[in-house]
Design brief:
Elements lengths: L25 H20 L8 H5 L3 E4 L1 E3 L1 E17 L2 E4 L5 E6 L6 E2 L4 E5 L2 H36 L5 H33 L2 E3 L4 E3 L9 E2 L8 E4 L4 E8 L3 H9 L5 E5 L6 E10 L9 E8 L11 E18 L4 E3 L2 E7 L5 E12 L2 E5 L6 E3 L11 E4 L26
Parallel strand pairs: 1-22
Antiparallel strand pairs: 2-21, 3-12, 3-16, 4-11, 5-7, 5-10, 6-9, 7-8, 9-11, 12-15, 13-14, 13-16, 14-15, 16-20, 17-18, 18-19, 18-21, 19-20
Helix pairs in contact: 3-4
Length: 418
């Protein structure tokens, strides 16, 4: 039998045929979201921005500054250098005899005066040797006197032709021999006295003794390389400092006329002045390795503030400028090689004023180009220009340390002072 053929017509009893699902398009949604965001941005971007207040833009900026008033005065020209405190004399006492120490007559760090006894060495052996030398001298002096008596007798006898001339000549030479013996004995006595004096060590200069280096009971030996005591002179005392050879021209005339130039010494930080003295002398040549010349200044050192080998900063006053215009060094600005200041005018503005610096002493500068009573700015240089509006901040009076001159009102116009 043949199998029935499938009919090409749908079976009405089988129900509707299934529908194939459609493909999804996710990129379409993302594109729509991006379009919406772009539309929103364009809408807000086209909104008109509020216009800035033109009056506020045109209003000039006012700079608040501290100021100082130019004053007329004197200023010194100094040469600064590094120095070392150097005592005039440092004496190390050594033993020149051998013996036992019987006494130490000083305390460590004690101030002693010239001729004061410091150490006593047992003198008995040297006293005995001195007596021996004196005894030999006395014996030879007696022989010399006897020979001289015989010489006088022989001279009288020769005058009467009582003895031969040869006897007189021999006696004269005997007298000369005894004179030589006596002179030798006198030298031995002097030598023994010197040796005895070495048993009493005294200080040859006034000063301060160091730490004790020997104790009573120790035996010391002549020629020992170790010092028994060291004495350092402190009053007066000197400071040696090196000055560049370029500065010699500034002090040459004063040195030639033996002018005692004042010298101030400061501590290591250059904050405290220790003492004031006078220039004593300078070295006779320039040190070719450093290009400097050594100067020596002397100080009384009454308060013992200067200590040997102490490091100090020396300031040599070369000369003094009188009746010059003085301003704080902080007010000086430079544009290349040209120095200038911001001068504050009475119309509340700043103007650039070129100046010439003469010298600087600490925080004070002497300048040309300003008049006494002018006001210059001390701060706000990064905001100041020619014609900038300014207001003054309160500042103290000018001192030698460079503080502001005159007290200015915080809201007053530039150039006005109380």
């Amino acid at each position: 039998m043949e199998s029935p053929k499938a009919s090409s017509y749908p079976d009405p009893l089988a129900g509707p045929a299934p529908v194939a699902p459609r493909k999804r398009r996710p990129w379409l949604g993302i594109l729509l979201i991006c379009l919406l965001v772009l539309i929103v941005v364009l809408v807000f971007a086209r909104k008109p921005k509020p216009k800035a207040d033109e009056s506020a833009l045109n209003q000039p900026t006012v700079v608040t500054v501290k100021a100082a008033t130019v004053r007329e005065g004197d200023i010194g020209i100094h040469v600064d250098a590094l120095g070392t405190v150097t005592p005039i004399s440092t004496v190390s006492l050594y033993s020149q005899v051998t013996g036992r120490v019987v006494a130490v007559n000083y305390r460590e760090g004690q101030m002693v005066t010239k001729g004061q006894s410091l150490i006593e060495i047992d003198p008995r052996p040297y006293e005995a040797q001195l007596k021996q030398a004196e005894g030999t001298l006395q014996h030879d002096q007696g022989l010399l006197k006897q020979a001289q008596i015989d010489l006088d007798r022989y001279q009288k006898a020769v005058a009467r032709n009582a003895i031969a001339r040869q006897t007189l000549d021999d006696q004269e030479q005997v007298v000369e021999q005894y004179k030589g013996s006596v002179k030798n004995d006198e030298g031995q006595v002097d030598y023994q006295r010197v040796q005895l004096s070495y048993c009493h060590l005294t200080t040859p200069a006034s000063g301060r003794v160091g730490l004790r280096l020997v104790d009573p009971g120790n035996t010391i030996f002549a020629g020992n390389s170790n010092a028994l005591v060291v004495v350092t002179q402190l009053q007066p005392i000197t400071v040696v400092f090196n000055v560049a050879e370029d500065n010699l021209a500034q002090v040459r005339s004063q040195i030639l006329h033996r002018t005692g130039l004042p010298v101030d010494v400061y501590d290591r930080a250059q904050l405290n002045k220790i003492a004031t003295g006078r220039l004593l002398t300078i070295d006779n040549q320039v040190d070719t390795t450093t290009g400097t010349v050594r100067f020596r200044a002397q100080f009384d050192n009454h308060d013992l503030a200067l200590y040997p080998n102490q490091f100090v900063n020396a300031r040599l006053l070369v000369s003094t400028l009188h009746h010059v215009m003085l301003i704080p060094s902080a007010a000086v600005q430079r544009n290349g090689v040209q120095a200038f200041v911001y001068k504050l005018n009475s119309n509340h503005t700043a103007s650039i004023q070129n100046i010439v610096e003469k010298t600087t002493d600490g925080n004070i500068s002497a300048v040309d180009g300003l008049n006494a009573g002018d006001t210059v700015s001390l701060t706000g240089f990064d905001k100041l220009q020619d014609g900038t509006k300014v207001e003054l901040e309160e500042s103290g009076p000018v001192t030698s340390n460079g503080d502001a001159a005159g007290t200015l009102s915080g809201k007053s116009a530039a150039g006005q002072t109380r």
